[in-house]
Amino acid sequence: MATPLLGQMMAAPLLISSLLTHAARHHGDTEIVSRRVEGDIHRYTWRDAERRSRQLAQALRRLGVRDGERVGTLAWNGYRHLELYYAVSGMGSVIHTVNPRLFPEQIAYIVNHAEDRFVAFDIGFLPLVEAIAPQCPGVEGWIALADRAHLPPSQLPLLCYEDIVEAESGDFVWPSLDEHTASGLCYTSGTTGNPKGVLYSHRSTVLHAFGASLPDAMAMSARDAVLPVVPMFHVNAWGLPYSSALVGAKLVFPGKDLDGKSLYELFEAEGVTFSAGVPTVWLGLLTYVKSIGARFSTLERTVIGGSACPPAMLQTFEKDYGVRVIHSWGMSEMSPLGTLCHLRKHHRDLPAEAQQHILEKQGTAIYGVDLKIVGPDGEALPWDGKAFGDLYARGPWVLERYFRADASPLVDGWFPTGDVATIDAEGYVQITDRSKDVIKSGGEWISSIDIENIAMAHPESHEAACIAMQHPKREERPLLVVVRKPGSSLSREDVLAFYQGRVVKWWIPDDVVFVDEIPHTATGKMLKLKLREKFRDHRAAS
Fold this sequence. Notes:
The protein is an alpha/beta fold.
């Protein structure tokens, strides 16, 4: 076999530290603004962030953190968390973002499974840290993300973040690493069984940052002021801290205050142009903005993902406030971005209703992600927008195996996402359900997402979830769980009547129940497992 002719370009590895170095060198004066847990607003620049990240890397080395070892975080979105992102990965160790909304026993399991050597935490999580610390004997130190003046009293021998950072000179050179070196670790929500770890690499993270920034993805640039509403403990804030450094965008961190009022005030004060988050957060924001009769003065677009965006929410953003919604889909195992939804040039000539129908889909795969749908026999299904089956993915930022797991979940080199979807002839993906949430009625499948979207379109419905209930003849039938808007007297009959003419008759739910609140996972998704448990013996009203 002939020796291949190799290119003669520099062999520069794709490293996370290079993103920060680029931002500091070429966008050094661009601001990073944080609402701190202490209650005030902190401001500095990408140049400052790079310097302090080098100081932090020095400090962690002095504490004995070695290559490949994990440093955990329990923190909201803020500049100190950003410094941990870059310092830990940049020095050759692994940043492990832990979701503080999980149950304490889950957090302890995750910290132990990851073998975190140190854990850095926002001071508001001190009670949680003190509760789990006895269950985490492998953790050598707990680092409070605060200065000496705000360091809370504790039964634990806490390390003060600002003390260890300011003790260092910052004379630290980012090491040249193999780009396949592990960089970050994030665990799945764990709604069934123990959470599973997804271990990212420098290469996968940098490639994902490039992909996310593309014009037909998040379309990020140095002209943007980016506010990640999605938490930094949720799949690396969907890559926004990395993509923002890559393009040199202004970053605005909301801290712990994710209510509608706090977010809106920060949007307006900092001139935010772009944001990203899950539907539950946007629901609170829109409710607040409507209540005060306000508008968005600078917000241009937002990415909505994590779970399907109700069409009513998309229309409210677009038509009432002039904010473009980019519907997205992905998962922790995909770093997380898989698809984003934009219209194409020839779609401009379509009627508004047809355009809206396209925008309600999860969109098309971005470069770096390949997709297919398969039937029960494992054979690939056509992209005709009608056939739906299990969705599979592959690509350089898609999981090959879970952390510390022997077996790989891949099927012939493809990752089974657990979602059920259709793909049309133009490649637009529409998620119809999670495989475990599909309702099988008389041998036919019913999409719970479609049922929920119609319910959410009712003007008196605040939130809705569709689950399966047992049926003596048809196996399963849809049960709709609804949260009314405040002051509403919405009835079962009102809801069912709303479905007439909107879906085929056999898709109409057999019953409607009203609740004060729908439970959500730690990442904002509806926790249908809890609903199924609560209503497992429910039978339709006669």
